[in-house]
Amino acid sequence: MRRAKIVCTIGPATESIEQIQALVDAGMDVARLNRSHGDTEVHQRVYDNVRAASQASGRSVAVLVDLQGPKIRLGRFVEGKHELAVGDTFTITTEDVPGTKELVSTTHQGLPGDARVGDPILVDDGRILLRVTAIDGPRVVTRVEVGGPVSNNKGLNLPGVAVSVPAMSDKDEADLRWAVRVGADIIALSFVRSAADYDGVRRIMEEEGRILPVIAKIEKPQA
After folding, report:
1. In CATH, which superfamily holds the domain spanning 7-70+166-216?
2. Which of 16, 44, 51, 165 could, after both became Cys, cross-link 70 (CB 3.0–4.6 A)?
3. By the 8 A CB rule, do 208 and 180 touch?
4. CA of residue 141 relative to chain centroid, distance
């Protein structure tokens, strides 16, 4: 019996019934739906295609719904994209401001309280590295150590910092309820910090009347 499972993330290039059928025929055991991207209509279509392909092939394929988790993001820039160069001063604020090359807002209102002078801040999955040089009220002032292009809604990460955000966002709760109702087989919980983060997931599944296995994604040092 093969215990290792092949998990495939279904995206725009593989969401058609033909492409999913090819993945099933090639040995896919689990179809992963990444709720960080795409709306519910898209994921419902993918879910239906996975079930149809599984039935047509006679192979059991599980559906894993991966919740986005409490992702911290930059706000929007007036001119869309800017190039940050090494040595630039780049300030992130909790204020609602139009973004420029020097100043942009963030979705995380607790950033000034979580960050400390000297902390690194990673932008866009680590492509850009900032270093905190000062904290001035709602503003976190940084120096660019690794530059690159920055644009609307890019993710922020504070390595090693226990950020003060809830384990699940309102979007995560809605996505979880959809997954339970539609008939998904597995839930993946992102950015887990402790066993307590599972409590909210369990409560929602109990409310929906169906308990699914939950994969805790270990992505934070606290975990």
Report:
1. Phosphoenolpyruvate-binding domains (3.20.20.60)
2. 165
3. yes
4. 25
Q: Assess contact for 103 and 89: CB atoms under 8 A.
A: no
Q: For residue range 23-80, what is the model confidence (pLDDT) as tens digits?
A: 999 999 999 999 988 899 999 999 999 999 999 999 999 999 999 887 788 999 998 8
Q: What is the pTM of this model?
A: 0.77
**Residue of 38, 45, 25 whose CA lies nearest to 66:** 38
How far apart are the C-alpha atoms of 184 and 170, rounded to whole Å?
19
User: Whose structure tokens read 């919740």?
Assistant: 67
User: pLDDT at position 221, please?
Assistant: 63
Please report which helix (H) or strand (E) contains residue 78, including its range. none
Cβ-contact 75, 156 below 8 angstroms: no
Alpha-carbon torsion (167, 171, 173, 179), positive or negative: negative
| Domain residue ranges of the chain, discontinuous segments joined by + | 7-70+166-216, 72-157
What does the alpha-carbon distance between residue 205 and residue 111 come to, in Å, rounded to a whole number?
A: 31
Residue among 196, 189, 198, 199 nearest 219 (CA):
189
d(CA 165, CA 26): 40
C-alpha span between 149 and 90 (Å, rounded)? 13
CATH number of 72-157: 2.40.33.10
State the Cα angle at 126 between 121 and 129, rounded to 5°.
45
